[in-house]
Amino acid sequence: MALRQSQQLKLTQKFLPQQILMMRLLQLPVLALEDRIKEELVENPALEERDTDTESPSMEDGQMADEAGGTDEVDFENDVDFEEFMDDDARDLYKYDTGYAPESAGVFEPSGQSAQPVFQYLTDQVHLLQLDSNEAFIAEYIIGSLDEDGYLRRGLDMIADDLLFNFNLKNSIEVLEAVLKKIQSLDPPGIAARNVQECLLLQLQRKDQTREIQWATTLVKRFMEELIKKNYDRIQKRTGMPRDELKAVIHEIEALQPRPGMYFASGSERQDIVPDIVVQVESQRIEISLNGRQIPDLAISQDYIDMLDAYKKAKDAKSKEAAGFVKSKIEQAQWFIDALGQRQRTLIRCVKAITDAQRKYLLSGDPADIRPLLLKDIAALVELDLSTVSRVVNSKYIQTPYGTLLLKQFFSEGMQNQDGEDVSTTEIKTKLKAIIEQENKNQPLSDDALCAALQKLGYPLARRTVAKYREALNIPVARLRKVV
Predict the structure, then answer these.
(1) Which pTM does this prediction carry?
(2) Structural domains in the chain, sorted by start
């Protein structure tokens, strides 16, 4: 077969590095954005915090990105002509710039704390016990095997095998059981239990053995399944306890901590909520602003601009290569500044459209006033792509006079009530929650009964829809809401 050449015309669509950068910054909440800016300041020496007392050549209004998503290139005087020593591929910054990360690097997670505090807290207590070296080693190994809830999920036989194969320590199950019992005597109560039942019993053993605590121990030992299902009628029938006494016993059990590891919850579970947007309502006026917090005012380093000019004057090849590197850093810095400005303007545009749509709620504070709203509605209003609006809404918090809420809570699907009026699912969930709060806790309403109650209020819903809304509100089924 003969070789031959042919031409082919093909239309493709590519994202510019500037667009990718802006989208990554747009999806970050304010805390992650602060970390991203600090990272960029470390990686790019051409970027620096602006000195508010001096003018910077990088922040002219004409150099900022327009709201349509484009960015204006920085027009440096006496710029170097890179056509002389760069081919087309080399001019693509993302191919040679070491500061540009892959897609996965654009998502920042809060670091949180390590599991060291719980390990150290328990091992410090182990050192106070009278254990020989072998028992102390076993104790530390068991403590290191606890999960985040404080449970020992691995069997003692598996731990014995690990100790034998990894450390050549042969121990019987009885020895491991004895060490485990000593660990279970440590604080917090219930630590190192192998299941919920054992965890509750360990806590009950440390309490004053009153009549209620003794009965609570009996119920946890013999009626754990009934307790989980809140089948109190069966417990009362089997034990013969009076209703009032059973209620007191159940109260003692409910006061226990089924997750003792929660005392050492990681930082990622206790991360602070910092609003990205602040909404103020005064005299029927709604004002929105972005939470700048500690986000610095950025500028391009004048030293790097002077350096670029110096390299431009030198005609040797090494100076041109150095000029290429310096210019890439300056361009990256300008892109970052432009992307930040574009992020701020896009956030303001989208949030203003959202607050205008939910004006009634922001003025009243009544969740029932949240109107049906979809992402595509906002995308059409601000004339942006649906994915862009989704990035704005995702993981962002908004501070209102009625509390700090997720921005996505302003969005909900809608339906028509019996009067033909559009109502949001948020309004329906509010009504559903109110009905459940007012129900007789001795005889909670089933999903069918909840469905009937909502239909009387003018919301024609199916039972499965009511069950879906109830689950979305983290409200359990009727039998689990029952109290003694």
Answers:
(1) 0.53
(2) 29-102+297-333 (no CATH), 116-264 (no CATH), 412-484 (1.10.10.60)
